[in-house]
């Protein structure tokens, strides 16, 4: 399990308040520094105050865990317009939105899909793909998915 996944699991196990969703966690080397990037969201949107508040909370939780042995820079922010879709609840929340999906294996000789997210039900994502029309994709076959702000 990657360090980013360990941190994400740790934060999700701790009682996160205020209906905050941890959208994504990345632990990357930028120049000479390790950077822990935590993307958060909530229904009413994320404010600078939210980022500051959760930065302190996440820093304390991660530091006490000793998951990360190196010193790191912590960045807490909103996921942005092209946010990552990783959890089933995110797919359900954004039904009707434009999405870009990459799969592990080919479906109808295609691994990259772009279109409107029509449904998420019983572990299956249904998308109206601009190339092949309506396509069903098993959630477990999704390698990467994002909201798409431009078509």
List the helices and strands and how they pair.
Layout: H1 3-13, E1 21-30, E2 33-41, H2 48-65, E3 72-77, H3 88-93, E4 98-107, E5 110-121, E6 124-129, E7 133-138, E8 142-147
Parallel strand pairs: 2-3
Antiparallel strand pairs: 1-2, 4-5, 4-8, 5-6, 6-7
Short description:
With 151 residues, this protein is α+β, with helices and mostly antiparallel strands.
What distinguishing features does this structure have?
151 residues, alpha+beta, 3-stranded mixed β-sheet
Helix content: 10-25%
Task: Let me know the average pLDDT.
Answer: 92
Please write the string of helix (H) and strand (E) elements. Answer: HEEHEHEEEEE
Q: In DSSP terms, counting alpha (H) and pi (I) runs of 4 or more, how many helices?
A: 3
Quick one: biggest sheet?
5 strands, antiparallel
Strand content: 35-45%
For the largest sheet, list the strands in their spatial order. Answer: 7-6-5-4-8
Low-pLDDT stretches: none
Helix-and-strand structural type:
alpha+beta
Count the strands? 8
Radius of gyration: 17 Å
Q: What global shape is seen?
A: elongated
Distance between the termini: 34 Å
